[in-house]
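Hi all, posting the design record for the shared folder.

TITLE: backbone redesign
STEP: 1 of 1
STRUCTURE INPUT:
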């Protein structure tokens, strides 16, 4: 039976979504996870949600990831949303052809103009990264991954920024920041004009565009950033700020926290990965990574040191030197 935007199918088992856990009053701390969570809510998709802080426990090794019935696992928001539409959970069911085209245009604008600035402010800006981003991941990612995963993710985000901007030699700096923030402010202003006084971008019901806008703006709105230039501009735009707050109130009233009787779990059940073909590989990798991380930590903190022994007749001193530098220790430090 067709009910508005989706078909209710009580016989099918719910799909499983793995996403980054929540923080700062949000159901997730990750842009892509927020987008998928919002779309699933809007479309009425009955998902079993696993909110975790270890991407290696995802069936794809990344987050968000959707575990499907018969089509493997999907890890990109657009692919996840397309699959949900195939299952008749379509938040764009009521959109006209023109509205559908407008939606695609604005989503492209978000990814071209706003996303690079968000990556920069959360992952590249030194003050924001050290005081907020690295701190959260260092405190929430399980040991020993928390020693190196935040730095690895920062490197991946910088490469992503270079890819989005089409410049493999792009380097952080004041000039780049101004350029990115100028594009982001223009994008937010256009979104504000399009939303106007409406509740959602196409009227009284949310669509995929609303999910993407929420996913990109909610984190910027809620996180307390030391360098908040971009954040201050968003907070000055009343309708966009209210838009994010309304979605949180209407669709995530518990701020992503687990409630009695819900299908949300903060950790997968012990048998969630029993049937995954790469389970053995993941176990071996986890052990190797744990050993490597502990050895690196010991070297960096001076618990262990590497000494080079020179022949007695050689020039120079034969004193041993620690393997790590102060900068490396700062990069891996969990505050």
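Okay, here is what came back for every position:
SEQUENCE:
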């Amino acid at each position: 039976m067709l009910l508005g935007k989706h078909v209710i199918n009580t016989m099918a088992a719910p799909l499983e979504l793995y996403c980054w856990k929540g923080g700062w009053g949000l159901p997730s701390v990750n842009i892509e996870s927020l987008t998928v969570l919002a779309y699933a809510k809007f479309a009425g998709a009955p998902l079993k949600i696993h909110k975790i802080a270890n991407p290696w426990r995802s069936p794809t090794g990344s987050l968000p990831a959707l575990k499907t019935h018969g089509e493997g696992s999907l890890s990109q928001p657009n692919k996840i949303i397309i699959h949900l539409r195939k299952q008749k959970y379509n938040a764009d069911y009521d959109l006209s052809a023109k509205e559908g085209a407008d939606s695609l245009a604005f989503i492209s604008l978000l990814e071209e103009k706003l996303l690079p600035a968000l990556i920069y402010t959360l992952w590249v800006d030194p003050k924001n990264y050290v005081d907020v981003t690295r701190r959260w991941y260092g405190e929430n990612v399980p040991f020993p991954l928390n020693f190196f995963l935040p730095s690895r993710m920062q490197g991946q985000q910088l490469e992503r920024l270079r890819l989005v901007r089409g410049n493999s030699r792009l380097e952080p700096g004041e000039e780049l920041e101004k350029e990115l923030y100028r594009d982001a402010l223009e994008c937010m202003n256009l979104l504000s004009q399009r939303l106007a006084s409406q509740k959602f971008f196409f009227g009284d019901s949310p669509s995929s565009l609303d999910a993407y806008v929420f996913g990109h703006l909610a984190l910027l709105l809620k996180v307390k950033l030391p360098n908040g230039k971009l954040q201050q501009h968003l907070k000055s735009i009343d309708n966009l700020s209210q838009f994010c707050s309304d979605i949180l109130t209407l669709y995530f009233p518990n701020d992503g926290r687990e409630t009695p009787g819900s299908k949300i779990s903060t950790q997968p059940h012990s048998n969630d990965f029993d049937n995954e073909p790469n389970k053995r590989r993941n176990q071996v990798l986890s052990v190797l990574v744990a050993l490597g991380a502990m050895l690196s930590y010991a070297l960096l903190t001076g618990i262990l040191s590497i000494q080079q022994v020179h022949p007695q007749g050689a020039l120079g001193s034969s004193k041993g030197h620690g393997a790590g530098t102060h900068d490396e220790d700062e990069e891996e430090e969990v505050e």
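COMMENT: The domain at 97-258 is CATH 1.20.1050.10 (Glutathione S-transferase Yfyf (Class Pi); Chain A, domain 2).
Let me know if anyone wants the other runs.
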